[in-house]
Amino acid sequence: MNQQIVEITERIIARSKDTRQAYLDKIERAKTGTVHRASLSCGNLAHGFAACSKQDKDILRGINHSDIAIVSAYNDMLSAHQPYETYPVIIKEAVRETGGVAQFAGGVPAMCDGVTQGQPGMDLSLMSRDVIAMSTAVALSHNMFDGALMLGICDKIVPGLLIASMTFGHLPTVFVPAGPMPSGIPNKEKARVRQQFAKGEIGEDKLLEAESASYHSAGTCTFYGTANSNQLVVEVMGLHLPGASFVPPNTQLRDELTKAAARQVTRLTLQSGNYQPVGRMINEKSIVNAIVALLATGGSTNLTMHIIAFAKAAGIIINFQDFNDLSDAVPLLTRIYPNGHADVNHFHQAGGMALLIKELLNAGLLHPDVETICGSGLERYTKTPELIDGKLEWVDCVEVSGDPEVIATPAAPFKPDGGLKVLKGNLGTSVLKTSSLRDGSFVIKAPAVVFEDQHELEAAFKAGELEKDFVAVVRFQGPKARGMPELHKLTPPLGVLQDKGYKVALVTDGRMSGASGKVPAAIHLCPEALDGGLIAKVRNGDEILVDGETGELTLLVDEAELAQRENSMFQVNGHHEGMGREIFGFMRRNLSTADTGACSLFDEGLEA
């Protein structure tokens, strides 16, 4: 093992010693010596299986076979989740073949960030993660179930399902993916058209034509944003079947993997004699593996918050510094848009997850001695699923990358580090994704131009007021102020200005999309403006240093001058009402800081 990774893992274990033990004690108390439904009264149980077939009722009356919960984020609004419509029937049949029963325990909300980007609904996006976790808890609260299958893919959905899975850590749990849509127009072309529209060179008809050619069918969007980062993280933690993440939907291989996942969870229940509760299975090494794989692929910055939150749900304390230090130890091994021109289908075809895990294991960058839903050791995740004579088999992965421009080796990586830098200075602490930055854009020192809404920046751009070097400061976007919406509409105008030769950067207490790329963006700034962060004192013309090499984020204004300034006040301006935002006030007020997961679900703090 890489010694730096070992040392970081050891410090996480030491830091988490008390909270992890308390968690393990909790899930041990929740364990039962028989099926969980045995604790229910006759009236409880009668309600629990009232709608079941006679065959399933006969099984559930006994104590020898498991009842498996299906929790699904199916809806037609998310192309990634539309294929889940048919999964419950497939799963129920597969579980019945094992002698058990599967019941649809509950659906969870699932919003599409692609639809809500730049819209009022985006203010609910991050908070939807906590709602999903709570909805899953409601689904599992009936105490009928001996294991769970989680059906989710996209941005806040998988993290919410993971928080709930760790909360119900006494249950064996398997995650079931659905796969990406076929590749559409090249991502480089999509980005070019977006910038043409931002410059006023084309109209909405041409923009919609390009967007529709990119997002065009059922399946996950193919760029490497948060949704596909989720899939990679879940697989490397051993919660997917090996190689399942990026198999296309509506194929025989996809259906066979879904059936196999359903059968597999029954092999992990107490009744199987091979009890593997998910809370015991996922440990500090599993979490470090997730971060390493995320960094090695230049994954979504959203996961910096999500991993902290679901790790905390398992009693494991992670912080931004862990990401920073692991990034120093992990080379960048993939080029997937926005860190390159390829999409996840090209990544899958070049060797995909199996080859990536193999390369990372061989280089000593992943902990091999972890538990997975398929047993001990991560080595089995270097195999690829195939249909051989109609039967699902796992075969050795390719020896070398099918496209060295998409998957590299640790010996000759695309970059020597994982492309994530934690910036610190008098402005606070933030995260900067460097994996897709151009040479010469790692260090920006320029005057600030202050905005309190992404639409203000867009308007200033259209008015020609930003033809200069500057650092865009977009504040009052943090968890408590706005629920931390993604500021996706900033990407095209800032990209246009950068292409014109201006030195531009972004500093914000909000988030960028999981597809953030070439513009240096110091995001997730803590403390946020509404919590008294220094960003609330920044004025137009103040010089700011954003240094992705040394990790410095500094407002270059004399301390005596800053002491005389008053904090700017948050102007609600309707941001807390409309599109349901008015009913989320209790949650928004209780969100923790970004560096502690931006989470509202834990009674105690997430101090690291």
TrEMBL record:
Every copy of the Dihydroxy-acid/6-phosphogluconate dehydratase N-terminal domain together lies at 68-379
Q: Its domain of life?
A: Bacteria
SUPFAM superfamilies (alphabetical) = IlvD/EDD N-terminal domain-like (SSF143975), LeuD/IlvD-like (SSF52016)
This entry's comment on the bound cofactor is: Binds 1 [4Fe-4S] cluster.
Give binding positions for [4Fe-4S] cluster: 154, 221
Which one GO biological process term can you cite for this protein? Entner-Doudoroff pathway through 6-phosphogluconate
Reactions catalysed, semicolon-separated, are:
6-phospho-D-gluconate = 2-dehydro-3-deoxy-6-phospho-D-gluconate + H2O
Q: Which Gene3D superfamilies match?
A: IlvD/EDD C-terminal domain-like
Q: What is its EC number?
A: 4.2.1.12
Extract one GO molecular function annotation from the record: metal ion binding
Q: Which cofactor does it need?
A: [4Fe-4S] cluster
GO cellular-component term (any): cytosol
Q: Which Pfam families match?
A: ILV_EDD_C, ILVD_EDD_N
Keyword Magnesium included in the entry's annotation: yes
> What InterPro entries is this protein classified in?
6-phosphgluc_deHydtase, Dihydro-acid_dehy_C, DiOHA_6PGluconate_deHydtase_CS, ILV_EDD_C, ILV_EDD_N, IlvD/EDD_N
Per UniProt, residues of the Dihydroxy-acid/6-phosphogluconate dehydratase C-terminal domain are 405-598
Answer whether the UniProt record assigns the keyword Lyase to this protein: yes
Q: In which pathway does it act?
A: Carbohydrate metabolism; Entner-Doudoroff pathway
Q: Keywords of this protein's UniProt record, alphabetized?
A: 4Fe-4S, Carbohydrate metabolism, Gluconate utilization, Iron, Iron-sulfur, Lyase, Magnesium, Metal-binding
User: What HAMAP family does its record include?
Assistant: Edd (MF_02094)
Query: What biological function has been recorded for the protein in this entry?
Result: Catalyzes the dehydration of 6-phospho-D-gluconate to 2-dehydro-3-deoxy-6-phospho-D-gluconate.
Family membership: Belongs to the IlvD/Edd family.
- Protein's recorded name: Phosphogluconate dehydratase
Species whose genome carries this gene: Thalassotalea marina
Question: What phylogenetic lineage does the species belong to?
Answer: Bacteria, Pseudomonadati, Pseudomonadota, Gammaproteobacteria, Alteromonadales
This protein's encoding gene: edd
